[in-house]
Amino acid sequence: MRPLLGVLALVALLSPGLACPTPCSCSTKKNGRLLAECAYRELRDVPRGLSPNVTILTLSANRLGRLGRASLAEVPELQSLWLGYNHISSVEPGAFAALPHLKNLDLSHNRLADFPWQDLRNLSALQILKLSNNRLAAVPQGALAGLRELRSLWLNDNELATLARGTFEGLPALAQLQLFHNPFNCSCKLFWLKEWAHDTSVVLSRAGSTLCAAPARLRGRPVTDIPGALCVPPSAQLTYLSGPAAAGPRDGPTLTLHCSVAGSPPPEIRWQIRTAARRVDIRGPTVARDGGAKAGRQRFLAFKNGTMAIPDFGKEDEGTYTCVAVNDVGTRDVSVNVALAGSANPAEELPRDDPQAGHPGGHSCAKGDELDPSGMGEKLVIVYRVSSQARSGAGAREFRLGILLLALGLLLW
Questions:
Q1: How many CA atoms lie within 13 A of 70 on its CB side?
Q2: Which residues form the Ig-like domain (predicted)?
Q3: pLDDT per residue over 305-316, tens digit each?
Q4: Which residues pair with 336 in a beta bridge?
């Protein structure tokens, strides 16, 4: 009787490690890992009753249609999960989040149009991620951040038309990437991928089959061969002029800035204004087509052609004015610091740490490909308040020029 009780006790002690659902076969590998082999079983759900000690779970080539949040709750020690060649079209967020030891995840050859990307934040040990042959149309920006052990990433044979800049940054162990057979739109939004592919040591598998599907003129051309002439990063040049305003309650001068930009595609112009009392970010014009200021934007008048005017410029408007040029290839910005001083002299500009100081025609500052932004000194513009007695001669001429720039802002709309 005692031997029998001893055997029963031993079975009870070991049973959690040997638990195996009827459809599966379980075994212990030479390295001590417990394998649950459940492939090719016509399963429609993840079987219940798996041992919590299972580290390798094979569910490939079944008929699974979805994974719920608790589908894998019984196997928290999983290191390898093979789910390829199923009918999975839905994975509930959190399904993988409780598998912190997972190293290999295969969801290839399924019907996924979406994936719980947020679950990857908890999978810092992941080394292989196979999402190929699905219906994924996007990889959210930053979705792969934190996967520092990821070595192989399969995204081929999906419906990806573009990828956000920096998608594969922060993956120091990445050695292999598969992107072929996706309908990539080779606009300038994807130009970064060409540059990244040329600079990286990552092997882009079947790069010759990673082709453009659009636009028509580039269809069938490798993504890594997008012509550089089509995509030019922005350059920006800022010119400025101040002049006295007509007599009024504040009787302040008008500061006019003009941002000239170039690039392909044509850059969008944005403004950043930083004063002691406020921070203002302006995207697009604040002046309507009829010449009137849009609601809530009366203080800073931004025109579509890149001109900005600040009428009645006062001490509270002192600060840094930055023009930002943005297109699909990159961003450039150029700034000027503006201060107000009382003087009978016309407006003048004083360069700060600028090697061109004192040279004629210096009423501009620029940043572009030919200049090193780290070596550019910001300019300091002193706007002088001009008395009514001095509004003649040179002062009057400068005032007329200021009004002319404002008029141009409307005419070039």
A1: 2
A2: 234-339
A3: 999 998 888 889
A4: 321, 379
Count the Cβ atoms, other than its own, within 10 Å of residue 367. Answer: 20
Measured in degrees and rounded to the nearest 5, phi and psi for residue 222 equal: -60, 140
> Which residues does 231 contact at the CB level (< 8 Å), separation at least 6?
188, 191, 264, 265, 328, 329
**Which tokens hold the place of 246?**
């007509």
- Nearest-CA neighbor of 332 among 295, 385, 368, 382? 368
Q: What tens digit of pLDDT does each residue of 320-348 get?
A: 999 999 999 999 999 999 888 764 443 34
Tens-digit pLDDT profile for residues 42-65: 999 999 999 999 999 999 999 999
Which strands make up the sheet holding 319-326, listed edge to edge?
A: 279-283, 268-275, 319-326, 331-342, 379-385, 348-351
- 76-80: list long-range contacts, CB under 8 Å, 24+ apart: 76/52, 76/100, 76/101, 77/52, 77/53, 77/101, 78/54, 78/102, 79/33, 79/55, 79/103, 79/104, 80/55, 80/56, 80/104
Query: Which positions ≥6 away from 39 have C-beta within 8 Å?
Result: 58, 59, 60, 61, 62, 82
Residue 11 has pLDDT above 70, yes or no: no
Sign of CA dihedral 148, 154, 160, 162: positive
Q: How far apart are CA 308 and CA 331, in angstroms?
A: 19
Q: Are 412 and 386 in contact (CB under 8 A)?
A: no
pLDDT-based confidence at residue 369 (cuts at 50, 70, 90): very low
Give which of 307, 238, 250, 316 is closest to 280, Cα–Cα. Answer: 316
Tokens of 305: 């052609």
DSSP letter string, 262-276: EEESPPEEEEEEEES
Three-class secondary structure of residue 344 per DSSP: coil
Backbone angles phi, psi at 335, to 5 degrees: -125, 160
pLDDT band with cut points at 50, 70 and 90 for residue 390? very low
CA 37/CA 119 separation, integer angstroms: 25
The pairing of beta strand 232-244 with beta strand 364-367: antiparallel
Neighbouring CB atoms inside 10 A of 28's CB total 12
Measure the CA–CA gap between 248 and 71, rounded to whole angstroms: 73
Do the beta carbons of residue 202 and residue 177 sit within 8 Å?
A: yes
> What's the distance, Cα to Cα, between the start and end of the chain in Å?
99
Q: Which amino acid is at 212?
A: C
